[in-house]
Design brief:
With about 170 residues, the protein is mainly α. The protein contains three helices and no strands. Helices cover about 90% and strands about 0% of the residues. The longest helix has about 60 residues, at about 65-125.
Length: about 170
């Protein structure tokens, strides 16, 4: 029998449970975002249909071409404003879903990386004296993992800061 087989089996089961929990949370976030997008789209369409019906009645009452041009221009600008607002709402919903997904996945990746570094450091410490090639291989792998972990952290930090900065830029514009 494999030494520590029960511990290994339990560790694998724990990892699978955490993976399932994370996947479920991500799916729920995506479904919630989809619900919000659908509600926003339906609200926009409902508003547009009501406005088009009202505009149809207003256009019928117009007697002069100049009035019709002014009315059509005003109606066009309102349509542009509604479209812009709808796009802004959709962007915010999608950005929130992206942030939620990142918040769920980032700790998992960070934990995995720390665990991998820890195990590689243990392997490096357990290398027998005189086995320079094995020691060099383990140390090289450890350095690669450390560099990858640092690069991932830098990319994650910049990805987390970018939506907040673009949100501030939109609000000040």
């Amino acid at each position: 029998m494999i030494p520590n087989a029960e511990k290994i089996t339990q560790t694998i089961a724990d990892v699978q449970d955490r993976n399932l929990d994370t996947a479920t949370a991500i799916a729920n976030a995506a479904l919630d975002s989809n619900d919000h997008l659908l509600a926003a789209t339906l609200g926009t369409w409902r508003s547009l249909i009501a406005e088009f019906a009202n505009n149809a009645n207003t256009i019928v009452d117009v007697k002069e071409v100049g009035e019709l041009i002014k009315l059509e221009t005003a109606l066009g600008w309102r349509l542009i404003d509604k479209s812009t607002e709808s796009a802004r709402i959709a962007f915010e919903i999608i950005a929130q879903c992206q942030q939620t997904t990142l918040d769920l996945i980032e700790p998992r990746i960070s934990h995995f990386t720390r665990e991998l570094v820890s195990r590689l450091e243990s392997a490096a410490e357990s290398v027998k004296p005189g086995s320079n090639l094995a020691f060099a291989a383990v140390m090289s792998a450890l350095e690669i993992v450390r560099n990858t972990a640092q690069n991932t952290q830098i990319e994650t930090d910049s990805a987390t800061d970018a939506p907040a900065e673009s949100g501030r830029a939109r609000k000040t514009a």
